[in-house]
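Lab notebook: predicted structure, single chain.

Context: the supervisor wants predicted structures on file for every construct in the current expression panel, including those that have not yet been purified. This is the next one on the list. No modifications to the sequence; it matches the entry in the shared construct table.
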Amino acid sequence: MKFPRTLWDLLRGPSRMPAQAASPTRRRKQTAQQDRYDQLVDQMKATWSIRIHKWRNSTSGCAWELRDRQGEITRMIEAPYPRGPMSCVVFLHEVGHHAMGFNCGQPRCMEEYLAWDWAIREMTARGFNVTDRVRTRRDAAMRYALHKAVRRGIKRIPHELVQWLPEGVEVATIS
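Prediction complete. Output recorded below exactly as produced.
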């Protein structure tokens, strides 16, 4: 017997009640590709000693480090769980921040470039599909990072980043 879940279900009567939703714990059919993504997550967590603070539903991410009073560092990320090329590159980009290191004396926009470059190289090396959408996402993120750097008054940028400078903006380059 189906029980009404809302007052409207009760008023409509038993013949018009919606079917029960599938259990939220029920998993989708596991594919070979998803197995590869699962292995990637396990490998990255183990290799870089990363803890996942939260799996995001959107294709955005964040990476940071926590230091306790004894000086121990905990590497944290928030990212989408890899299920396709786009979520995979965003996940790897956040891991890339830890792989490349934070605050290594470079402009922040260069750290973004290094993290994107690392993520795409990792995807290629591991045989994951680097699509045009992935490259377009990287380009948009780099244009945003450069626009922010220019807005904040950056005087010189590394020559690798010139291609993403906003139109009409001229900034000296670092060789």
